[in-house]
Amino acid sequence: MRPLNARDSAAPPRRDPAPSRLAYRLHRLWLTPLFRALLRVGLPIVALALAAGFYLSDQARRENLQAWLAEQRRAFEQRPEFMVRLMAIDGASPGLDADIRAAVPLDFPLSSFDLDLDAIRSAIAEIDAVAAVSVRVRPGGVLQVAVSERKPAVVWRGQEEILLLDGTGHRVTALMARAERPDLPLITGRGADRAVPEALALLEALAPVGQRVRGLVRMGERRWDVALDRNQRILLPEDDPVTALERVLVLDGSTEMLARDISVIDMRNPERPTVRLGPGALEGLRMINMIELEEGTANQ
Questions:
Q1: How far apart are CA 150 and CA 163, in angstroms?
Q2: Cβ(149)–Cβ(179) under 8 Å?
Q3: Mean pLDDT split into 10-residue runs, the chain, 300 residues
Q4: Please, what are the domains in the chain?
Q5: C-alpha radius of gyration, the chain, whole number
Q6: C-alpha distance across the termini of the chain, in Å
Q7: Is 144 exposed, middle or buried (0-12, 13-18, 19+ CB in 10 A)?
Q8: Contact 137/144 with Cβ under 8 angstroms?
Q9: Rounded to whole angstroms, what are the CA distances from 289 to 43, 261, 275, 280?
């Protein structure tokens, strides 16, 4: 009999349950979140990039792909919900409406993706009569243009042209003749366009004799003359011309000075206003002086 502690030489060796060093390191590496992300996400991306690079390495395939993408994009942009079929303009007079359509010659229908709203807005804002403009694409395929139109306040007769100006002196449009806007007051002289607010204040003060006012003349780019009918003029000072004009109107209300044969009322020095008689009054004054002189000589 064999003893119990005798070893069986034919039995296989027992396997060590501990992992090998390589298996241990691989297992530890797999437990790293970054390594798992690289294998699950990075490896497919690299594979796809390599495949795409291989496919696009051929010039013909690249051109075909570009043409297909362009066709798909165009088909998307041309869908009915993106088409603009007309332009609506709000806040513009008929003349300004025509100017806007001429400045923005769009051929409808067209895709909203083909519209450069900033360029359209800039083109319309360059029109003199436009004070402000907003542009948007409205549901229903409508290009909505809302403008604030400048209101002409005076007619300015310059050296080379006749212009309509708004209350700030900004150009509105050109005129062929003064008679096109007889309803607006006339200003003239160099620099008059830069002093429109002051001119409007003077015209407001002239309301009691408004029917007689022919216009305002800017003198030396620093002061105003008021031109009335019957060739009368009121010469105003450079400083505080409205107050000087109001003094003249007060005198006219009490003495009817403007109804007399006076050609010039000089208020350039408010402390020493002077008047210049008209030809008829001057001749009458000469006759009176001659009569007084003759009477004085006879009495002697």
A1: 13
A2: no
A3: 55 65 76 79 84 81 80 75 88 92 90 89 94 92 93 92 94 92 94 95 94 94 94 94 94 87 90 81 57 59
A4: 80-149 (3.10.20.310), 156-283 (3.40.50.11690)
A5: 46
A6: 195
A7: middle
A8: yes
A9: 119, 17, 19, 14
